User: Fold this.
Amino acid sequence: MGIITGLLRQFYRKSKLCPVINFRSASDVSPLRCEIKGDFSWLCGSSVDVLDAIRGHVEVRENFITEEEESALFKEVELGLKKKKYEFNHWDDAIHGYRETERLQWGSVCAGILARVRTTAFPEGSPLLGPVHVLDLDKTGYIKPHVDSVKFCGSTIAGLCLLSDSVMRLVREENTADCVDLLLSRRSLYIMRDDVRFKFTHEILKDEESFFSGHRVPRERRISVICRNLPV
Ligand SMILES: O=C(O)CCC(=O)C(=O)O
Assistant:
């Protein structure tokens, strides 16, 4: 069993597209303009209420790393990944078309990047999971909707996105009409905390379904480098 399959509780719910209204719209009919201060161009949702519910629990920091830092991370993780084969055939896996590895020891450039991730994402003193999880999705790969297990995961997850833009979809478990899309641009860092982890499913859309706010977001091979804290 892979690391992720052990960590995740999968929902055998077929990923279905839900109506997504651009958060920055001006009325219910045509797209509303975002009234939250700051740049939320990476966020759109099915209603203002659901966006209010997730506000403060999810964050995307675009261009968190430079191209040089992305290359440094890629070189280091590729060493562990290339020994493995992509997994495609397990119908019950939470993920399709992936390989994964964990890494505890990093060279100085990557260690510096990860220290920055941890300082940005986790409260001071929060007990962190030592090994960093590296998840490599093939171009045809995707992550099915799932909720992280409270048994294995702490309150926060922080992921660096390498090689490709992608769309992460969050769907409220209690009301699946409530959904939010996050545009995870290449070299961004996303952070998810608390209720968003446990009351919403999250998934990474497959290439054919990869649209954000009506715009196509082509999915290439994508690697995420994920830091977590420990459950308390
Ligand atoms: O690859 C990603 O960024 C998402 C990983 C994920 O869904 C998880 O760790 O629960």
User: Anything to note?
Assistant: The pocket of 2-oxoglutaric acid is lined by residues 8, 135, 143, 148, 157, 159, 202, 204, 224, 226 (CB under 6 Å). The mean pLDDT is 84.
